[in-house]
Amino acid sequence: MDNFNIELFKKFDIFIKIFNSIYDMVYITKVEEDGHFSYLLANDAAKRFIGLTEESFGKRLDEIMPKGAAQIISKKYQQAIEMKNEISYEEKMNVPPHITNHVKYAPNDIVYWESSITPIFDDNGSCTHLFAIVRDITERKENEEKLKRLAHYDYLTGLPNRVLFTKRLKEELEKLRQNDGLIAVMFLDLDNFKDINDTMGHDVGDLILQSFGNKVKNTLRSQDVLSRLGGDEFVILLPNLPEEKAAMKIAENIVQSLQYEWNIEGYQFKSTTSIGIAFYRNEDIQHNELLKKADIALYQAKQKGKNKYHIYEEEGK
């Protein structure tokens, strides 16, 4: 091998080492005469991400990748060619079942990526290759989802929090302002929860709240929304009610579901609930006014001996 070839080989070897050390995934794709795409070169990060092997190169994308992912990528490649410019996008896919030795993911895990694709044209203006840089953004997306969940769901029970409940209630009220219908809001809490919490400790108290949430949820319809506002205060939105009796029946079921002895962390005890109900009867009121009425009804249920429900009534009625 002469000196020129040796130097060329060394330069190529250095290029490959640098190419494979890049953290992001790099793909060089060939545009076939029939319009399909095949990978010509990929760095190690790119190979690991979708399970490419030496046998994968030269084959069409739809032969080596999951159908959905191949369609997405081919569409984006075609878009870059038509625009004759770099494009960027975000997407997701399931890890192919055949990838069992992935460094970070297991088969069927959902992974997210962002990609920039640059088309490469020859002197005749035909696109011959595409250069793509891809970044795995799965961790970022998962963190975004966690933050979104923390903003809308209660950390202890996993139920919708006040923010999400208020949003849903406003939506239902807006529907009823345009169409006839009936909804109800229930305010409820655990009778004597403070005494139970002080006696058994806050850790057991947290378990009681979780169990209470599950018991109540099991009595509701699929479209009902149960939310924890804080402490032992819970609120329920009952949309699309056929009549007031339907809400009263749900309240009765909730009360009855708590008549049995609880057994948590070795403690045996009884705890009941009181419920206040307010109906929306096509009045010109805001969501917070409806909640206030349900809260007043809860107080009235407490005044009447607890372990029961009470429907809000205007004073003097």
Describe the structure.
The protein is α+β, with helices and mostly antiparallel strands and 317 residues long. It folds into 2 domains: 3-145, PAS domain (Beta-Lactamase, 2-Layer Sandwich), CATH 3.30.450; 153-311, Alpha-Beta Plaits (2-Layer Sandwich). It contains 10 helices and 12 strands. The strands form 3 sheets. A 5-stranded antiparallel beta sheet has the order 2-1-5-4-3, with helices on both faces. The chain has a 5-stranded mixed beta sheet with strand order 7-8-6-11-12, sandwiched between helices. It has a two-stranded antiparallel ribbon with strand order 9-10. A hairpin with a 5-residue loop joins strand 1 (25-31) and strand 2. Helix 7 (193-200) crosses helix 8 (202-217). The longest helix has 19 residues, at 3-21. It is elongated, with a radius of gyration of 31 Å. The mean pLDDT is 87. It holds the Pfam family GGDEF. It comes from Bacillus suaedaesalsae. Residues 181-314 form the GGDEF domain. Residues 93-149 form the PAC domain.
State the main characteristics.
single chain; 317 residues; alpha+beta; Beta-Lactamase; Alpha-Beta Plaits; 2 domains; five-stranded mixed β-sheet; 10 helices; 42% helix; PAS-like_dom_sf; Nucleotide_cyclase
